[in-house]
Amino acid sequence: xxxxxxxxxxxxxxxxxxxxxxxxxxxxxxxxxxxxxxxxxxxxxxxxxxxxxxxxxxxxxxxxxxxxxxxxxxxxxxxxxxxxxxxxxxxxxxxxxxxxxxxxxxxxxxxxxxxxxxxxxxxxxxxxxxxxxxxxxxxxxxxxxxxxxxxxxxxxxxxxxxxxxxxxxxxxxxxxxxxxxxxxxxxxxxxxxxxxxxxxxxxxxxxxxxxxxxxxxxxxxxxxxxxxxxxxxxxxxxxxxxxxxxxxxxxxxxxxxxxxxxxxxxxxxxxxxxxxxxxxxxxxxxxxxxxxxxxxxxxxxxxxxxxxxxxxxxxxx
Length: 317
Ligand SMILES: NC(=O)c1ccc[n+]([C@@H]2O[C@H](COP(=O)([O-])OP(=O)(O)OC[C@H]3O[C@@H](n4cnc5c(N)ncnc54)[C@H](O)[C@@H]3O)[C@@H](O)[C@H]2O)c1
What we know:
This protein is of the alpha/beta class. The chain is 41% helix and 17% strand. A seven-stranded parallel beta sheet has the order 3-2-1-4-5-6-11, sandwiched between helices. Helix 4 (94-112) packs parallel to helix 5. Nicotinamide-adenine-dinucleotide is lined by residues 7, 9-13, 30-34, 36, 42, 61-63, 80-84, 100, 104, 123, 125, 176, 178-179, 185.
């Protein structure tokens, strides 16, 4: 069995690749190392993977590489490459979202037409729910994204359904709910909070900090993807992949102070456009049909992220 991971140098991709290689699964990965955040972190993520003889890395843009070459040798395509982040998706940067989210997905789908036995797992997002009508969010809720980023993810999901309908391409779209843990992106809240502690600087909180989030530990995500590959299970679903419990940003900060044993000043800034007030996943579908079983509670997960943050910032990368 061979697996292609797009966006392999990123947060989730590097964690996933490590897990699959440890399980003896051959992986190849593609990443163009975009400068959305410091590429030193991406190189740091790649370092332990590159020494593994079961891993092949292409430092390339998906849109500029031969897609046949990428796909023909692999049984599973895990498409994580994207321009992430809600806030920067407004304005002139939108073309980056169109290229890295919509066009990469469309190219992979077009190529998959020739290879009907291959299977696609797509990284979707809770942001496609936006201002939805019911909580916890179920897969059949109203999909009403409130950011251009969320719109691109919803468009990708719809495009995948279209190619499934017309060409029978096998897929699973996994709607991730705020993933955290070792190697988390530096633009994401927990990483920023921990970094403020390391630097003895204030923590900036958008709005009142009472926004509710469903946080998902990265090991739960990668364990699930590994299970989906190994079990080669049912296909053609869109599934919530959340932690299944909710907590406010203010409560997370209290936990961070207690885990690190350090305090810093809190400063509140304006609410960000496109930021959802509540995310809370209903994971019944993934649980019942795919045995999804998130194991980590937020305190365990935060401790692991804190350990990674200390190692990373003391390694002088
Ligand atoms: N982290 C989360 O909480 C979260 C939540 C919901 C959905 N997602 C989705 O999961 C996926 C992984 O997220 P992440 O947090 O690991 O992001 P990340 O930014 O760390 O990783 C994405 C990687 O894709 C690469 N990439 C982008 N465009 C590319 C292209 N055209 N060709 C080759 N490589 C390209 C980037 O260089 C980056 O390393 C993304 O699709 C993201 O939208 C993440």
